[in-house]
Specification:
Length: 574
Amino acid sequence: MGDRPEPSSRSGDSELIDPEAGSAGTGTGTGTESPATIAPAPWWVRVGIVVVVGAGIVARFLPRGSMWLDEALSANIAQLPLGDIGGALERDGHPPLYYVILHAWGALVGWSPWALRALSGIFGVAALPLAFWAGQRIGGRPDADGHRDPIRARRTAVAALVVLAALPFAIRYSSETRMYSLVMLLVLAGYLLVDHHRERPRWSTAIATAIVAGLLLWSHYWSLWLLGALGLVLLVQAVLDHRHGRTRRRNAELGLAAAIVVGALTFVAWLPTMLYQSAHTGTPWGDVVRPAAFGVLGMIQVFGGNVAEPQLTAYLVAGVMVLGLFGLTNAAGRIELGWRVRPTARREGLIVLVTLAIAWAVSFVARAAFTGRYLAVVVPLVVLVIAMGLSAITRDGWRRAVAVVVVAGFAAGVAAEVGRVRTQAGEVADRIVEATAALPDGAPDPLVVTCPDQNGPSVQRALRDVGLLDAEGQGRVRVVAVPRLDDPRFVDWVDYAERNRAIDPAEVAGRITELGRDRTIFLAVTEGYKTLEGKCEAIQNTLVSARGAPRILVTPDERNEDEPGMQLLEFPAP
């Protein structure tokens, strides 16, 4: 997002949003040192970089156990015929691009958890070179004297690569059957296109920007807030450039704003579905958060989740980000902070801030919940801000020490993520296999009931993985989900809270008893789900009255971050 200075605007002092008078291309301008004179880093630094990046790549593909609710929903929707995906998403609450790609991927490589997650891993790996190039461009912006420093450009590129490779947030969503890794890849591609177009406007980059903008909108709704923030910043900058006679840059920025609009027009076909989802699905599983919680929860999620070491590291990273936005260290090793210091990542930081402000305002008005994974639309820009902060530390020893501490903190978060069980569905499936094998010969197929229906997709998928069910959901057991007691593969989020309030636990328990009249009943139950408070407990108590005390096969594990703890109860056949 930069441009070479025009003759009429050699000084950047009049720039309010964009203090940098140029950008990118480290091979042009009047750099203080030519690339040929850059001394290579010590061998141990280069080895360390390779190890961190290699470990980050491997971590993106390590097995993670059974799929939790959102992953299982993604897989089940993607496995539908292409013509049915749109209708399923109308009841789920997402745009379709990722599901269509996952449909093609699953048809090609198979539908196992590892195979499906590998698609996100590929997106995550593909983002790494884009982060390197983006870091090279932002680090190669000219300083206050118009000089480009190839050393800083290289430092920033490497820092962006290492930070994204080791970032717990990026590793988590590169190993999950969800669209967030795709979103981060598209954001980085869009960043490079926008930055290149502002420097050298071309029809090709404008068209590519429109395509990426459209793909983002078809991938996740929070892209609306990112593109809105970017468009707003571009328009304000165009006004400032017009006032200062920077015609070429103004035209480039207006062209980019127009490209975003063109990309958004491709989304018009999906707009009725989005409006229906907004009115009827929403986020019944969570609550609206205050503005400060956006920042706090976001930092926790991005830098390592509920793990102490990366949370502690987040304070250091916050300081590095301030340095990336407002400062540098001079030759004497002292930190200098100020608005006129450059090059900086202030434009990237501003876009992040405006995106989050729009997102919070819309969420507050719509009474929608917030979860950290939505930050995928801004995480690549946060990575660039961190990289600029690291490269602003000019003394090699200090910079490397800070980087080691940051990566070590991230590593603790990654280790916890790799070993974390996202759902107890796999454990539930294993116990059902054991209990089913112990039934007498000729006994009717057991009935598995999930309460609420949010347990259904993960439990049904886990039962498929252990061989009790086939791809069509048929097999040694029958699985149903409360309250409908039908297909457990999906959750119908339409008017979810209203429908759950209308549940009559005694009536549902009666239907369960009738369905399982001559069968063993397994109840996979979770207490305390929002909008279902007390319903599953009442159903369980009614079954106890009808069948007697159950055998407890699985107890809730409350350490799960994605799903609340799940209990498995066995009610023997009468």
